[in-house]
């Protein structure tokens, strides 16, 4: 492999997925044969560009596999192991990834603008800890109970996605779009949602202590009962949002727009940089 490609691999997941991309791509017939012969193992296989629609990959071992540009729309991948797999431009539209493991999976490469498509996919209880899903299309995806700790979701599209009870502690959602998404009861401690666009999103009872919401647009969002202890909310747009019963101890509300916000039951005494009563707040 050329030296530059090796160096690039080190910065983009590298390891098994990089090695897989250097081996010849498997045909669909070869994939089916390996599934039968090797106990459903496709570990470190090169499946780049393969059309795998219609295959049953539930429980399959795809760890370290090269899946760039592969077609997996509607495929059953429930319980599959995609640890460290390369997902650049992979089409998972409507796929079933319930309970799948995508730890440290890599959806982008240096200079790449071709993230994976997971629109409408089912990732219930999936483990995507540390996965790089920058710019991924997760519109209307179901991620209920999923683990996305420290995941990279910078500029990802989570419009209408379901993330109830998901764990996104420490995840990077800077500049993400999450309009109408449901984060009810989610774990969002130290999450970075700075400059995110989450109009009408639901964060009811979410645990968001030390979260970074600076510059985010949370107009009409539901943050009722959320724990926003020591959250950074500078210049956050909270117009007509509900923060009823939310915990705001030590939160920084400098230049936050609380016009029309419902702050019933909130104790603002320990908030930082709230220099006057919120104009128009209920």
Features:
little secondary structure; 282 residues; 9% helix; disordered N terminus; elongated
Written account of the structure:
This protein has helices at 3-10, 15-22, 28-37. The longest helix has 10 residues, at 28-37. The protein is elongated and about 65 Å long. With 282 residues, the chain is low in regular secondary structure.
Topology:
Blueprint: H1 3-10, H2 15-22, H3 28-37
Mean pLDDT: 91
Runs in which pLDDT lies below 50 for 5 or more consecutive residues are 1-14
Largest sheet: none
- Tell me the overall shape: elongated
Count of separate DSSP helical elements: 3
Give the SSE order as H and E letters. HHH
> What's the total number of strands?
0
Integer-rounded radius of gyration:
21 Å
**How helix-rich are the residues, as a percent range?**
under 10%
Structural class: little secondary structure
Share of residues in strands: under 5%
Report the end-to-end length measured between terminal Cα atoms: 63 Å
Characterize this entry briefly:
The chain is low in regular secondary structure.
